[in-house]
Structure prediction request, 884 residues.
Amino acid sequence: MTNNSTALLETKFRPPRGRASLLNRPRLVEFAQRVLEVPLTLVSAPAGFGKSTLLTSWHDSLFDNACLAWLSLDEADSEPDILGRYLAEAVSRALGTPNERLLSLEAVAADLVNRVGINGRPFVLVLDDYQLAESARTDAVLRFVIDHQPSEMHLIIGSRRDPALPLARLRARGRLLELRPDDLRFTADEAGALFNDLEGLALSTEQIAVLESRTEGWAAALHLAALSAKGKGDLNRFIESFSGTHRFVYDYLADEVFHQQAEETQTFLLRTSILDRLTGPLCDVVSGMDKSGTRLEALSRGNLFTIALDEDGRWFRYHPLFRDFLRRRLEDEGRNESQRLHRLASDWLAHENLLAEALPQAIAAGDEGWILSLIERSMPDAIFRGELLIPGFDHWLQAIDRNEVERRPRIAIPLALSRALAGRVAETGEILNRAEDVVEARSQPPYSMSAAEADEHRSAVSIARAYLARYQGDPVRALFIADRAMETATTDFARAWLNITRQFVHFETWSSGSEPSAAEIQSAANRCYAVGHLGGATAMETVQHYRLVLSGQLIEADRHIRSAIAEAYERNALPVVGMLHGASAELYYERGELDEAEDEAKRCLELGAPGASPGLFIPPEATLARIQLADRRTAQAQDSIRMLQLRAAGVETVQGRTLFPALSAHLHLLAGSLSPAQEWADSLVLSQDSEPAFEFEYQELVHARILAALGRPGEALPLLQRIRSSATAAGRTGRALEAKLIEACCLWRLNDERQAISAFNELLPLAERESYARTLLDEGEPAIAMLRRTAIGGRHANFATRLLLLAGEAQAKGTRSATGPDELSERELDVLRLLVLGSSNREIASDLVVSLDTVKTHLRNVYGKLGAHSRTQAIAAAHERRLV
Prediction:
């Protein structure tokens, strides 16, 4: 039996102290205001996430009218009698009453419940580092306290893992306040305060952003980075190299995390660290252990730097710094072991047709023969799913001898297609020539090739050559190649892809009398779906979208793109669904829904799927720049413009040479940078044809805008009238509206207000019916002035007023009070309503036809604006504010 006369450690009754507690984080301190509203508050997060620091800040600044008992736990407290003695002393000190010296933990718990009830004042008990003292008996005693605690009592637990308490029941009844890693992560502003205000480092916003992103807001890593940065001459170099292998971070993870685990868990962590994403069956193979799915769930619940990637608990990842740490330890144990694990992972991923993840593992395994075999075996499915569009495809092939690649048609022809799809025209032709020599037996293939396979290769070569002709600006030749190849194609897949080429050419040569057919485009998409060519089907859905947008049918375009995205996800059309998200972003932007537009543009970039026709469709970087400019985030917009220019640098297509420079000039004009826009306009050679080609329409509209901005609106008017006439005749009503709008703005600049208003009134019926917004607002002061005039009265007064309010909201954004609650956007209200109905995240995504990541972004925004940190709290706040 424990000797009850043993002295008690005074430090266990006081919060720990450190410089970190000097950092003010108001958003977390505000949580303490709600502690007295619930019986239990749980602060659960991995080591070094600032749990004790947060509880200390609560202890120091709040609960003035409450009795506060603090107990820092350690391993010795896993002995119930020792814990009982400390708990009894902490309670007695808080209540100011003598310690009854009870003999058991259970007796202390019963006495605690009784004494707090009799006292009648609010009572807060903090148990910090609960994971060190946790045992079955301790959990049982706490369950007793929770079940019987009086209304005056509030329990706060800080722990590295969830305790075995009835959390689900308390959560469902609204009796639990939870703070998780996402709540405790440092924001960029908080990281800046830590580095610059507390540590005096004077880091730039960009440097802080890099460290915040790399650490994912992990407090301990940020503090260690600050400590390491002091005295460093080249901070950029230090920040760029900061990782989980940095000495301070490595030692912290080794001592505080890794060595605290059982040997079997350590082995599991090391072997699975080679993976970027983890799932049970894959980890079974790599670790050589069973029940890996259960292990991953336990690691995630235990806050062991293991993050769930979906709500189903099937896929996980390690925190990047923890993964760096584990990989370094694995390397120290021997390179051969690492290569063996990479090969196992590659085999499993290839078997599951996850080429995007199988190939990097194969490359890491270092077996070139296996890499070639894997690519050849996986290539048909990769083509079907559109994975040729992944930027990493080129990178993977760089690991293999180029000559070996080009003498293998099964790889060389898809490589040529990927180069063509990326707009790299010259290289496409070179690769195709060598591949065709092998197919036609003019050079020796590395393997025997049947007549059927040779025919399939010939069709693929024709597809690539048709694309090449398109991108070289020769649509007639592209159609000739496609039509001739269609006659000899031996597979439905080849015929479907050749038909795609024809539809692209018809769209790109859109003129009066040869409008693209909606039925034929949809038929081409359906044929692709039928043969499993998801990349081609998605490309055709995108063409259909742009046909509708250019025709001025924005409402129908919105319906179509939502349906197409839903279809793509249902068929698992990744990553090519990214181009649909890019198209969706433009519609959200047009309606002035900037947050939703940004989510969609970023989703497109995350998926890494470029437009199906380089230079024809608007790249996501351009949409992102327009969003940021409308939101008055000029510095970020300049970064997006630079990203766009980097993308343009590798595109050699005629379409790309037309569109990308015009896009950049337009964005510079929107940003108020007239010089680069004028430089582009001065270098432009305009067509003198009476009906300008469709592919030059956009650049001519940009040129007209620049002329107006340079004070030469009169020169722009003939150009605009020519574009409007051509677009109207061809059925491009949306493009004609845009030309009419710029024309009205030019007339306004010429002080011909009567003609300007007349022209403006002509476009308003279509603009209001189809919910145009940013097209009008982005024309600047002339359009705003005419909207003000329209808002005074008339049929379109309400529409004009709404646009003016939208313009005012964009200008005011970023200057709102940080203390007042932000208003929820329409889409956030949609998410909130579904939340109140009890829909899961996945159900919300399905109902709103958005991605799961987008739903999570909306939920974070909703929680932040409502001051909520759980579904229960958000629903309560929604009812309180009468939002639902």
Summary: The longest strand covers residues 153-159. The radius of gyration is 32 Å. Confidence is low (pLDDT under 50) at residues 1-5, 813-821. The CA atoms of residues 668 and 674 lie 7 Å apart.
